[in-house]
Design goal:
single chain; 389 residues; alpha/beta; 8-stranded mixed sheet
């Protein structure tokens, strides 16, 4: 394989590194020309001011940004679309919306010629990228198509377009590589009429285990205190954190997320001395926060519906805590994860009790889980082997 394209929700430069960054970096380091195709990036993001969506991102990625990585080269690019903001889509028929979501003021043919020519394999993330699968299949009939759903859209998305796109993806993909066995079972029961077991394998997400075994300088907010730390791109449950911070004033709750706070969350943070908000950190800094906090927390709001999601298993957040031998206290995720040593809670009182108990046993062990089997080095090698044509 000489060239691979990852069609992804992410930008290459971001505070939200996911598995696609690991796979793309491994591909480039091995000498494979790698395209990191950030999709979708509609024209209207010129007026947004989010970390992932803004004028600078649109302008830079429309031209393309090159990176030298190891023996190879990585191109982070986008093809801006005419898609409307979600609130406006409800006023137009499905066919019109889909047309806008996969068309641009510039031709896809010219974008293909400049960035995608001679691509051997396309790897799609579970996001709006699935809408492009038919176009890619038509333009690149000999290329391999892999679907990598970290979050199966049929269960994690409320967007009608994404769910229809995923259905088409399952039909056209040569391989579906899930992050856990639960997802395979979920697809099997949700789409029995098109489920092809021979297409599906599981290669989980992982962690750079060695990074969580090192000693680091303690970040200033964690110095000389008992701390509960959340790092992630999902917005946490601020009401839950308010209750926990009030109930446990001796614990400092440190919340790190690239999202801008809304007014309600800002008022909660400003009113509590032991609730700290940090506007995202570079991915390379994550290990020093995880290894130096007392407890890792994962406080997801009930509105996400994670508690009852059949396809949700262990995630990279869990693996990081496990690699550092830190207890992780979750809220709103499946109770079944407790079998791995994760402390799962379903009510605010349980969460507060879980954090209070966990700080007393901060050197947590996970004897029934082999964290080395989740090392990114091995997983990336396995994944790229599946991408070979």
């Amino acid at each position: 394989m000489k060239k691979i394209c990852f069609v992804t929700y992410h930008n290459w430069e971001t505070k939200r590194h996911g598995g696609f960054h690991q796979f793309a970096q491994a591909a480039a380091q091995s000498g494979i020309e790698t395209v990191f195709f950030s999709f979708s990036r509609p024209y209207y993001i010129k007026w947004k001011h989010e970390e992932r969506l803004n004028k600078k991102v649109l302008d830079n990625l429309s031209v393309g940004v090159d990176y030298k990585i190891g023996k190879g080269k990585l191109h982070n690019v986008t093809w801006p679309t005419l898609a409307l903001p979600g609130v406006l889509r409800k006023f137009l028929p499905y066919k019109v919306n889909k047309f806008l979501m996969i068309h641009s003021l510039s031709s896809f043919e010219s974008f293909k010629t400049k960035w995608l020519h001679d691509t051997d394999c396309f790897v799609f993330e579970s996001c709006e990228a699935v809408l492009l699968v038919k176009i890619i299949k038509e333009k690149f009939p000999k290329s391999k198509i892999i679907y990598r759903p970290s979050d199966p859209l049929w269960e994690f998305s409320n967007d009608f377009f994404n769910i229809k796109g995923e259905y088409e993806m399952l039909q056209l993909a040569d391989r579906v590589i899930t992050v856990n066995e639960e997802s395979i079972e979920g697809y099997k029961h949700r789409f029995p009429e098109i489920f092809d077991e021979s297409k599906f394998i599981c290669i989980p997400n992982g962690v750079n285990v060695e990074d969580y075994k090192k000693s680091y300088e303690v970040p200033e907010p964690l110095i000389d205190c008992v701390s509960a730390c959340y790092i992630g791109s999902f917005l946490p449950d601020w009401e839950l954190l308010s209750l926990a911070a009030k109930a446990l004033p001796e614990i400092k709750f440190v919340i790190i997320t690239p999202h801008t706070l809304n007014e309600g969350a800002r008022q909660i943070v400003d009113s509590l001395d032991n609730l700290i908000y940090i506007d995202g950190i570079p991915s390379l800094e994550v290990p020093k926060w995880i290894t130096n906090c007392t407890v890792v927390i994962q406080p997801f709001p009930p509105k996400y519906g994670h508690l009852n999601k059949v396809s949700l298993g262990l995630t990279a957040k869990n693996y990081k805590a496990m690699a550092a031998n830190k207890p992780i206290v979750t809220y709103g995720v499946p109770i079944k994860l407790s079998k791995y040593g994760v402390i799962t809670t379903a009510t605010p009182d349980e969460f507060i009790d879980g954090v209070e108990t966990a700080v007393k046993h901060s050197d947590h062990q996970y004897p029934h889980f082999d964290i080395e089997s989740r090392n990114w080095g091995k997983l990336c090698a396995d994944f790229l082997a599946e991408c070979e044509v």
